[in-house]
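Good morning,

Both structures are done.
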Amino acid sequence: MVSLNSKDGKDRWRKKVGRREDPVLLHGVALIIKNHVIAGVGGDAMDMPGSWKRAIPETGDVQWRWNTTPRKGEPGADTWRILRPWNTAAA
């Protein structure tokens, strides 16, 4: 993600959303809601499940992450009988 200064267009900060070798991408632009930057990050559900991340606008540091497909030990993980991303090498 990149934050630009609205007055001069220069970078305020740049943050990676994933590792270069992982098949992840941002789905559209980030949403700015009050003092929250919300970004949807996706992969291919089987190897790299998607997530929502909340970043601090001033720094770009991630405040929290919510996995759209539950990981092992997370609530609801036991309901995914066919799709078990924690059994793959990327999880």
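Second structure follows.
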Amino acid sequence: MQKVRVGVVGLGEVGQITHLPILQALGDRYEIGALCDISCELLRSQGERYSVEKRYTDAGELATQDDLDAVFVLNSDEYHAECTIAALEHGKHVLVEKPMCLTDAEADAIIAARDRAGKVVMVAYMRRYAPAFLRAVEEVHSLGNIRYARVRDIIGQNRLIIDQSSIVHRPNDIPRDAIQDKQQRAERLGREAIGDRHEEFGGVYRLLCGLSSHDLSAMRELLGMPERVLGAAVSERGRFISVIFGYPGYNVMFETGTDSQRRFDAHIEVYGDSKSVRVQYDTPYIRHLPTTLTVTQTVGEAYTEVVERPTYTDPYSRELEYFHEVVTTGGQPKTTPEDFKQDLQLFRMIIDSLSERSTDNIAHDTEPPQQEPTADFWYTNSDDRAALRKKAPKAEQLNYLWYLWDQHNVLLNKQGQPARDEHGHFKEKLNNDPGKLNDAELERATGLRSQTVRRYIERYKKTGERDDRAPGAGQGNRWNH
């Protein structure tokens, strides 16, 4: 069997737990010819573990290595497009982890580079290569009328599972300038993708690009693209997302989020008249946990439930077997860059719906006034303040930003202590343009969810309305900018 010689860019958790061990296990198909990471610690540990001599801290240099057939791009999302294009420009096939990139412009650049090179670019949507999923596609296509579908991916943080099941080298030598560059790229690409809405929904967009891209991509293969988004909402500061997609004749409920439970609940279920099909995934960070297919059906008076486990081979292994076949036979994968662009379109549809809902909430927020607590009581302790904020009218909560600040100093003066500027490090930002505050600054200043604060800032800018009943009103209109 023809071997494909691979260079691996990015030696983090996904590389250490899945890709590198599978490449080694598929030794009849692959050979690891080079490694790249910005951490010299990781290069040393993984290079020694897999006996790889060629090691790079620059993906562009790895791409120039003549004896490589393909490059696996496994590093941070912000660099996927750059590394993919560099590999293509030096005549290499590419397997790129999801998301392939963060913007349409990056996707188009990858497609153009692929076409110039005449090479393969495959997006690593491993769930779509699981045998149970492939069986589900067959079952759904023969299901008849679809009545409803549900797509769910609510999981505990990956580290909760990894720490109990794997030994992962987490380096301590990441250069400070590399961290800053990553943050700046994330900000720039987020704004390119969704514009000014990045302030409120940047975190949501990244969750969609990350965890949710697996689910939405699989949904598309099973059901096709939805016609529209009927509604979308976020909770827990954007860590949970709920969306209703409209399809011809039926709707699909999509729900996703991360918490601190050590469990992995990811499934897609499609309901017909008298039959349903469900694909259940388990964590990919423990290899060989099976993906299962459950088919339930009612025929006459009988109800049956059949659970299929086509194989113990994990989806990552099947994905790499497929990539090898495509590269060595001159084929094209089903998870192409063009296919991925449909996911970018879906992400924007969801952000559009969230934006409309946010604007609607601003226009229709007319809660009646309520009695407010006294100033000193707000400073009893943080738990009291958190409880009382929930009782305060939403339209007045933003005024507490300044009210609490001033009253804190009043309280300190009463106690004979010098007044201090509790939030002085971004006071100037607030006075000049509150819209420039980042999410962490807003939440630290107000104790409120940043997207809530931004809604009221935006309403003030548009209407000039400020509720004079708010306790801080008598101190002057500080939002008048």
